[in-house]
Automatic annotation (TrEMBL), chains A, B:
Pfam family, one: ProRS-C_1
Lineage: Bacteria, Bacillati, Bacillota, Bacilli, Bacillales
UniProt catalytic activity: tRNA(Pro) + L-proline + ATP = L-prolyl-tRNA(Pro) + AMP + diphosphate
E.C. numbers: 6.1.1.15
GO BP terms, alphabetized: prolyl-tRNA aminoacylation
Name listed for the protein in its UniProt record: Proline--tRNA ligase
Length: 488, 488
């Protein structure tokens, strides 16, 4: 098994260097490649297909809840950013600017959108006149730009792909319902389709979206214990409505500002999926997201291959007919090499079939998530595969929940204890994970945690495992119970 | 019928001013809106949904022929454009440039992609080493930029949406087959789904894509007689392979340049669909593309509405269950207003149902394409609707073919005759249409036609209705038979 060893050496073990493992795994599996453009990656076909599946899962739910897609210009005039003060402060340092076009300097420079509240706010001010025009429920799939200093493939790149929903409502109540509805859709997609458990909660004021009244997020734990913000939903109040004069004549004949929301999720979900489910063998995809769900590999001596194929081909067709995303690997490489290859690429089920299996009317199903093998009759194999895929989906979610809970620390009450916890984890080379802490609500207390430990507040969970009583920094009475963690 | 008159006045008749008609119709139907960003439009939900349907029809066929989607950076370093000489000459005048980002000037300025041969060529040079890596069959859905002087919604905008396929092959033969295969897919989608007849053919050298060996196109006639290039497919030979050093080790152990192709279609197809099928009542969509295929409108006195709804609701459900995109208009406006409204929005079938219809167990189907009304039994209405939708699809295509052929002129042999033809059409206020002309193959003869008449060569059709014998300009023997027309 010389190939085997060579193979394993190519991916750095997670425990040795998690970031290196991540880069090794996604490069080797050909999900992405670096480019000569600073901080921009290529989404190669296997990486892009993951995004297509995430898109389909999200888009379906957006449409079911009455949203429609539209497309707004990518270039945003500089003056638009001035109309919401916090917004420009938040995004200005990260903007790339077009200053010349068609051989001439522009009169007003144009930003590459970091998000589209401004241009969409401007258009809404022209489209909305009356309560009859409300609500406006629009989503956009688009590329956006944030010129980040430090980048990480999928998780943080200068250009990325996302969806941004932008809605306008007659009342605060309705806008707040929308904000929560979309957060719940994110939770559902990420938990049910990507098999990633998340905490729904509210961002602290210091972590709010630039220009929002309230920001809510779903937060997920990676296998190195760090957090990824996997989706955000903002109640923007009248902030953008006032900046862009989005007013309507209400039923009571009064002109009023609309209440707007925005909500976004992005290609960083690809990165999260890899960091939650991958292991030292490489990637592992939950069946609902996997580009290939089952790889069929014939085994046994070549001279008996023809016999094997008489059972192989009809089974391939049967799986396809059952709606399974199946792929046959008939290349000349050894079965051992192929097993490694498809494990590394994260395929949930490997189906092995050799001459003896054909004689016995059976096949072997090998699970990527547990490594277990089961033997099933060929006759009912399609059904068995379909069932096993659902079982794997559930098991991957359950495993992620168990990992998360194991690395969630509920007993840390002071900064000293947090320091001690981090030191202990570092000496044991274990993830320091997340810490549930009380917080008095003062910005300085939150900032001090970050300053001293690099743990930042993730969110104030709606439904925390316990309620904390005292502020982790000052010891005063806690107003909120907050997840703190290092984050991507 | 006061509303009726007011309504008709809002859309300029096609015969009076076709461009005004176009803008009036798409604005009134809320397909798009202008923005403060020069030459950029908003694709509003009803416009964007057309693009989603075009995307789905194309993407399905791309995948069936073995292509996969990927995503490459939008920003392209200036130096990349230098690597293919004709390419930079062709695109340089139209490029917008990012010159600063993150608060600092860039060392090398970055173009907003007008097309992606360069960045993709660069990546392919790293991915392709051996004949085993070929072919590479990748497509990208993306926004692109061409800073045009004169813009027209959907047909020519500074930013637009498109797909661009980029493939690399071991041999010229295979690359040329790919070029033709994709041209055929464009023809199929545009004729079968958009109900627009096209001529497949080759572009003359002066109209070739910048950097291509051969460019092929499908060309469609609008209702004002002008042409729209509805899709192009390029055989690029080794041009980009040499510029970007895309080489592979072949089976014969020789390093060789790959042969590449590229092919694209864009949101201008939305504009073409409107200009081919629309009329003085507004838009008209072929059933396979229509966001709404059937609008159901209850008629008759309000006091009998309840009775109508007992038949209306189950029929709505039955149509939905049959896979029809159906919409019910239960607003308070008069039936007459609604009829106009949905005709203007291009819905193929209006389904009317009143108290007497319910008594007689029937409904009325009114066709957008012919204005005809037919009465069908409620019991079989879903089936009748499905069948009628197919009939309308075919009829709209046939009508477009008849219009095109009527405005295709095969008998014009000299520039003098062309001048006379144009003058006659102008005095009759008729579209001058297309002219099939002989061409000797000299650039000057082609240029002279354009200079004198604004008719440009569209393509050299593979299968012209007749073969022309002499050059329209110089009278020498014709090497090619060419479609000439004014074009968008």
């Amino acid at each position: 098994m010389k190939q085997d060893k060579a193979f394993v050496k190519e991916i750095t073990p997670q425990s040795e260097d998690f970031s290196r493992w991540y880069i090794d795994a996604i490069k080797k599996a050909e999900l992405m490649d670096y480019t000569p453009v600073r901080g921009c990656i290529v989404f190669k076909p296997d990486g892009f297909e993951l995004w297509e599946r995430i898109q389909a899962a999200m888009d379906k739910r957006f449409k079911e809840t009455g949203h429609r897609n539209a497309y707004f210009p990518m270039l945003i005039p500089e003056s638009f950013f001035q109309k919401e003060k916090e917004h420009i402060e938040g995004f200005n340092p990260e903007l790339p600017w077009v200053t010349e076009a068609g051989g001439e300097p522009l009169e007003e420079k144009l930003a590459l959108r970091p998000t589209s509240e401004t241009i969409i706010g401007h258009m809404y001010s022209q489209w909305i006149q009356s309560y009859r025009d409300l609500p406006v429920l629009i989503n956009q799939w688009a590329n956006v730009f944030r010129w980040e200093k430090r980048t990480m493939p999928f998780l943080r790149t200068s250009e990325f792909l996302w969806q941004e929903g932008h809605t306008a409502h007659a009342t605060e109540e309705e806008a707040r319902e929308e904000t929560m509805q979309m957060l719940e859709i994110y939770r559902e997609v990420v938990e049910q389709e990507l098999a990633i458990p998340v905490w729904k909660g509210q961002k602290t004021p210091s972590e709010r979206f630039a220009g929002a009244i309230d920001t809510y997020s779903i937060e997920a734990m990676m296998k190195d214990g760090k957090a990824v913000q996997a989706g955000t939903s903002h109640y923007l109040g009248e902030n953008f409505a006032r900046g862009f004069e989005i007013k309507f004549l209400d039923r009571d004949n009064q002109f009023k500002y609309v209440h707007t929301t925005s909500w976004g999720s992005s290609t960083r979900l690809i990165g999260a999926m890899i960091m939650v489910h991958g292991d030292d063998r490489g990637l592992a995809f939950p069946p609902r997201m996997a580009p290939t769900q089952v790889v069929m590999i014939p085994v046994g001596p070549m001279k008996l291959r023809e016999q094997v194929m008489t059972a192989f081909d009809p089974l391939f067709d049967a799986l396809k007919a059952a709606g399974v995303r199946v792929r046959a690997d008939l290349r000349e490489e050894t079965p051992g090499w192929k097993f490694n290859e498809w494990e590394m690429r994260g395929v949930p089920i490997r189906l092995e079939i050799g001459p003896r299996d054909v004689e016995n009317g059976q096949v072997i199903l090998a699970r990527r998530d547990t490594g277990e093998k089961v033997t099933v009759p060929i006759a009912g194999a399609a059904e068995a595969v379909t069932k096993l895929l659902e079982e794997i989906q559930q098991n991957m979610y359950d495993k992620a929940v168990a990992f998360r809970d194991e690395h969630s620390h509920l007993e840390i009450d002071t900064l000293e204890q947090l320091h001690a916890h981090i030191a202990a984890c570092e000496s044991d080379k274990k993830p320091s994970g997340w810490v549930l802490a009380g917080w008095c609500g003062e910005d300085e207390c939150e900032a001090k945690v970050k300053e001293e430990t690099k743990f930042t507040s993730r969110n104030i969970p709606f439904d925390p495992p316990v309620e904390k009583k005292t502020c982790i920094t000052c010891g005063a009475e806690a107003k909120h119970t907050v997840w703190f963690a290092r984050a991507y």
